[in-house]
Amino acid sequence: MAEHVLEMAGITKVFPGVKAVDNVNFTLRKGEVHALLGENGAGKTTLMKILAGVYRPEQGKIVIDGQPVQINSRKKSQELGVGMIFQELSVLPNLNVAENLFLAKEKKKGMLLDNSLMEKEAQALLQSLGLSISPNQIVKNLSMGERQVIEIARAISSDAKIIVMDEPTSALTHDEQEKLFEIIQKLKARGTAIIYVSHRMDEIFKICDRITVLRDGKKIDTVDTKEADIKQIINMMIGDNEGFHESVIARKQTGKQTAAPILQVDRLTGTKFKNVSFKLYKGEILGIAGLLGSGRTEILRAICGLDPVSSGTITMNGTVRRIKSIQDAIRLGIIMVPEDRRNEGIIPGMSIRENVTLTNLPAFFPSGVIKSKTEHTVARRNITDLKIAPGDPEKKVGKLSGGNQQKVVISRCLNLNPQILLLDEPTQGIDIVAKTELYKLFRSLADQGMAIIVVSSELPELVSITDRTIVLYDGQVKTTLEDAEINNKSILYHATGGQ
């Protein structure tokens, strides 16, 4: 039997109201790449944060190299040989490569830093990984792929025997991905064990030896990669619960559209997407699905003028438009509800009244003088129409629930009378009751003729509310799903690169 460098047995972690990890067993062999898969909320990140010492489990045990261990801090985890490489890289951009590699473990000559020794050891380490990066190179001048490799090198310099990689290729080019895979093979040859968290099935089947799938906090199974296929893995991730969120609202039967599109995007290329084309029709809810880093949010930002595009066209009501700013978009009747409502959507210290009228003050008060009575009337109408609770216009928005905060953001957008509403993760972090209310609101708006684009990481959400859904993979449109084709398994299959 292969040697287990790591055993996690009966791991359970409970947060208020939810069992995030439920009696999970996980093993890792020396010199293997083990994929850890599951939908958002399946428990992957929580399990890895327990290994990293960020969280402490309610029950269960961890064994490293045959010895039971207690991991009660990030430092302890590192001392035991666990290196964590999260999506948000922790390299410091203003330091050079050598300084990053030896951060918090600097080499010294007496009381002074031994920069010469650190540069020499950094150079040797980088060369061992097949890299030609200079130890003196400032990290902010490196590509994302090179920064990713610096993270790996830092873990190796700390004698990591286990390296966790969380979506390591989400921001990498194809060439950078291939370089990363080469490095992973070198690490395997050294006996380093790697836990590989990703949704990209082509990568999983290319570099991983085994696959463990979590669903709803529970372990479903562990399989040898060579004995599995994509459809089997997706079935394990989704389960047989296909109808769980089955349409809380009535989906339009799309079929062949006969009316002219209100919005047409042709071969649009931006920072994280390329040659994207689709049409949006009046009264339609169009979904955009894809993995993190697939370009979903960036497409919305490009349409509403927040991000530049390098090529392609945006046509609205038959006329090609050049949208260079959010003000251009608003004038055309396009408005976006951002993903981060707390930092980009609301002003927590202001009241509901002040928040809902904020972006349309010139229309409400053309003379330039804000009339509190008028503002109060507008706020009251918004509170009634969107069922914002509590119904006090003077209530500070920062004191509202997440669902009601989102309703405030949406009401402010609706006060601009948009033709097209762009929704980025519109129900993130809110409860099921609030979600259902918002779903019904979106359908009501569409029934009144508004065109809506929804970007969401929650597959049941897209299944519930969209009339059509385009699926992105590596920044390009992989397929367009309609009617009964819009289901969890189909979306995930295409989003992970299924052929």
Explain what this protein looks like in three dimensions.
The structure is a single chain. The protein contains 18 helices and 22 strands. The chain has helices spanning 44-51, 74-79, 97-101, 115-128, 144-157, 174-190, 201-207, 230-238, 296-303, 326-332, 341-345, 352-357, 361-364, 372-386, 402-414, 432-447, 459-465, 488-495, and strands spanning 4-15, 18-29, 33-37, 59-64, 67-69, 82-85, 108-109, 112-113, 162-166, 193-197, 210-215, 218-224, 263-269, 276-280, 285-289, 311-316, 319-321, 334-337, 420-424, 451-455, 468-473, 476-482. It has 2 domains: 4-238, Rossmann fold; 263-495, 3-Layer(aba) Sandwich (Rossmann fold). It has a 6-stranded mixed beta sheet, sandwiched between helices. The protein has a 6-stranded mixed beta sheet with strand order 18-19-20-15-21-22, with helices on both faces. A 4-stranded antiparallel beta sheet has the order 2-1-4-5, covered by helices on one side. The chain has 499 residues and is α/β, with parallel strands linked by helices. Residues 6-241, 249-499 form the ABC transporter domain. Keywords: ATP-binding, Cell membrane, Membrane, Nucleotide-binding, Repeat, Translocase, Transport. GO terms for molecular function: ATP binding; ATP hydrolysis activity. It is found in: Cell membrane.
Short characterization:
Its main location: membrane. This is ATP-binding cassette domain-containing protein. The chain has 499 residues and is α/β, with parallel strands linked by helices.
